[in-house]
Amino acid sequence: MNEKYTYTVAETRAHYAHIQGQVKKGIISLTHNKNSQDNSYTINEKILESLLLKVEGETIVEYDESQKTYTVYHSLVPQIMAETDSKENIKEVYLLAIKEFVKDYVENIDTFSVFLDGLQQFIVGLLLLNIENNEKCLEIVNFG
Fold first, then answer.
1. Count of alpha carbons within 13 Å of 15, Cβ hemisphere only?
2. Which of 35, 97, 109, 110 qualifies as a cystine partner to 82, CB 3.0-4.6 A?
3. What CA–CA distance (Å, rounded) separates 71 from 112?
């Protein structure tokens, strides 16, 4: 097993097509930045989708009788939340909240990356990749 799966940043640039070929076949590659000591992994869509299926988070809808409002939020990323007084528009209000949260996440990434754990960042990252696809966003947050 002489194949290489860990690359420096310079090697990643030089061998990107080869790395993509490995990833396509199911190999997870690692890019290591020697200066910052940071690591980045590249995985294929099949692996990513399988990981998402293992995430046990869900969207929760609660009704507050005294305030006559519905609150909708994600169990693993409760920062993604919305309120509405109508059960009929929960989906639309929640999608708007998802899009606003993802936008805020990107604009304030230095802050969010400190207090969101890896699983939360995974979910938000997937939302960011799929932000133009409403149905996929709802699938990611297990809105059902």
1. 18
2. 97
3. 22
Query: In angstroms, rounded to a whole number, what is the distance separating the alpha carbons of residues 112 and 129?
Result: 17
d(CA 47, CA 103): 26
- The H-or-E segment that residue 6 falls in is strand 6-8
How many C-beta atoms surround the C-beta of residue 113 within 10 A? Answer: 10
Label residue 35 by pLDDT band (50, 70, 90).
confident
Q: Are 104 and 30 in contact (CB under 8 A)?
A: no
State how far the Cα of 20 lies from the Cα of 85, in Å rounded to an integer.
Answer: 48
Closest CA to 97 of 122, 72, 80, 75: 80
Tell me the residue type at 29: S
The Cβ of residue 140 has, within 10 Å, a number of other Cβ atoms equal to 23
Instruction: Please give the residue that has the higher pLDDT: either 82 or 39.
Output: 82
pLDDT of 60 strictly over 90: yes
